[in-house]
Write a structure and sequence with these properties.
604 residues, alpha+beta, Sufe protein. Chain: A, 4 domains, 4-stranded antiparallel beta sheet, 3-stranded antiparallel beta sheet, 10% strand, elongated
């Protein structure tokens, strides 16, 4: 009987033990590490460069001692002398690879004890649970990064303890670019409103994890490693490709520039670094070329899903750990059939990428709000005001202003019969790219509610302010917020608002109590359109008077609307047609209050 044997699912490619390739791989990572130290030294300060050096040395020493400890515990007298055995075992487990990777995927402000805990977890738990280097199912650095993120997340700062986030020029509201993008919903095609430019995003001259920001440098090094066959190119290319085509579809569904969105999405965070240096780990990836390509696609799908469907601003480490779990299963069905059914395999690749595009693009499309943001109508409007405003979407002086163009929005203001605002609606091109549009969509209902709570004259006063009040501003969508204000000012420009009052007592009242009537009078084209009594609780002094007032007020209001300002001011005495039987004193007080408004109140 013949027995067919094969390595266990965790015993990966024999090339994983190639010391020269591991050394080249670590040297490549060292170039990124030194580049990071130089950047932080020049831009922020030497103490940041020293912190990066300390983090790397701490990780290296911790993983080295952990490897040596395991070797000591494994020692048996039959292994010969202890010291040569320990040194040999330590050498074969490449502690410096795990340490270098882990140190590069944490931020500069990570405390030393967290570096130690993460390095110990990566080495003792992740690597040695399955037997050590060459047998581990998970990438130790990736799972170590997840561990410290879950256990010590609040300590992983992009600045040194004791410093302020304001000291770092590339942090937006104290957050790294990935956190800021996550807070804005990721759907952006411009970096307006963020404290980084696209050039900084590509070159890596911004603050993030120590070694993950230098996108172009990482790509160049990654291509070189693939060319010299230090690692397999398939996981990287299929990983990048899946994310690229998926984000193109999402950007198109969101109505933003898909190319810019995809470029920003891929170059921020650890996508480039993870694809070139972690997903390519020969120990934790499948052994067949088909399997390596497949995990690249799956990891890309999960990165996009995690970033958009969770509060986690990153998804790369989680995606890598997840596909690591699938590697043995993929090997089971692919090893030994590398050249079989190639069309079917390419069909699987294309089907997965297309499914990702349709799925994620559909989610984005379904989540898009209506192009018109409004509050529910409260009543049928008595009067509707319309206004428009046109302005540039960005300033020509702004380096991130790729194409300045004019945008126009239109507003409608619904008024009740007292010219109180009951609803505000806005339509048109309110925001022109992803970040502005996301900011607008997230805040417009609250902004409109704040405007709706204002009076017409309060809106008119905004024209004299040097800046919008905080509750009417849209941080990150300033041009759109100002355009909205200008459109509302345009809507109310034909209305003149006057304020007045009159005080009198009630005849034959032994207490001689004085009562005041306060009014706002709304005039258009020289005609009284309506008025609003701003202290209605003082209109009448008894239930009898108040009932009479309520029954006769609508007719009284219609009578006032028939007067031009000129005719009304020509009245010398209180006319009978402006009186309410049974509430004469209150009606007379109203008459003189309106006269006071038109004569002495000026435009409010």
């Amino acid at each position: 009987m013949n027995f067919v044997t094969s390595p266990g699912p965790y015993l990966r490619d024999a090339k994983a033990s190639n010391a020269m390739k591991m050394l080249i791989y670590t040297i490549a990572l060292g170039v990124i590490w030194m580049t990071s130290m130089v950047y932080y030294d020049v831009v922020i300060g030497v103490e940041y460069s020293l912190a990066i050096f300390t983090i790397m040395m701490t990780a290296q020493l911790t993983t080295l001692l952990a490897d040596m400890l395991v070797a000591v515990l494994r020692y048996q007298p039959s292994n010969g002398r202890m010291l040569p055995f320990v040194l040999e075992q330590t050498k074969k487990n490449y502690s410096y690879v795990t340490a270098t990777l882990f140190a590069l995927i944490i931020p500069v402000g990570t405390p030393a004890f967290v570096v130690i805990m993460g390095s110990l977890f990566s080495t003792l738990v992740v690597k040695y649970t399955f037997g050590g280097f060459g047998a581990n199912i998970f990438n130790p650095a990736a799972l170590g990064r997840i561990f410290v993120g879950l256990a010590f997340g609040s300590t992983l700062l992009p600045y040194l303890p004791g410093d302020s986030s304001l000291m770092i020029p590339t942090l937006t509201t104290g957050a790294t670019i990935t956190t800021a993008l996550n807070n804005s919903g990721w759907l952006v095609d411009s970096l307006n409103g963020f404290n980084v430019t696209l050039n900084q995003l590509l070159l890596g001259t911004y603050t993030g994890a120590i070694g993950e920001t230098f996108s172009i440098l990482i790509l160049v090094i990654g291509i070189s490693l693939s060319f010299f066959k230090v690692h397999n190119w398939r996981p990287t290319i299929f990983f990048y490709g899946t994310i690229f085509f998926t984000t193109l579809a999402m950007g198109s569904m969101a109505g933003i520039n898909p190319w810019m969105f995809s470029l920003i999405f891929m170059s921020s965070g650890s996508i480039i670094f993870g694809g070139s240096f972690m997903l390519t780990d020969p120990v934790t990836s499948p052994t067949s070329n088909f399997g390596k390509a497949l995990i690249g696609i799956l990891a890309g799908i999960f990165v996009v899903f995690i970033r958009f469907q969770s509060n986690n601003p990153e998804g790369v480490a989680y995606a890598i750990v997840f596909v690591n779990m699938l590697s043995p299963l993929i090997d089971k069905f692919t090893v030994g059939s590398i050249t079989q059914h190639m069309q079917r395999k390419w069909g699987i690749f294309a089907g997965l990428v297309a499914s990702s595009m349709v799925f994620h693009g559909g989610l984005v499309y379904a989540a898009q709000p209506s192009t018109s943001s409004s509050l529910p109508d409260i009543i049928e409007p008595y009067r509707v005001l319309n206004g428009t405003a046109t302005s540039l979407n960005c300033s020509f002086e702004d380096p991130d202003c790729l194409e300045a163009e004019e945008d126009t929005i239109a507003t409608t203001i619904d008024l009740n019969e007292y010219y109180q605002i009951t609803n505000i609606d806005v339509t048109g091109k309110v925001a022109t790219n992803g970040f502005w549009k996301t900011t607008w969509n997230a805040n417009i209902d609250d902004i409109l509610a704040s405007y709706q709570a204002l009076s017409i004259d309060r809106i008119q006063q905004l024209d004299t302010l040097s800046a919008l009040p905080d509750d009417l501003a849209l941080i990150g969508a300033t041009n759109s917020a100002e355009r909205l204000m200008d459109a509302l000012l345009d809507a109310v420009k034909t209305i003149d608002v006057y304020e007045g009052s009159f005080t009198s007592d009630i005849p034959d009242d032994p207490e001689a109590i004085l009562y005041t009537m306060n009014v706002k009078v709304y005039v258009e084209n020289g005609m009284i359109m309506t008025f609003d009594i701003t202290n209605p609780e003082d209109i009448a002094t008894s239930a009898f008077y108040r009932n009479n007032w309520n029954e006769g007020f609508e007719a009284l209001l219609e009578t006032y609307r028939g007067y031009t300002v000129e005719d009304f001011l020509a009245l010398e005495d209180f006319p009978s047609d402006l009186s309410i039987l049974g509430a004469t004193v209150s009606a007379e007080r109203l008459f003189y209050a309106i006269q006071d408004a038109l004569v002495n109140g000026g435009q409010a």
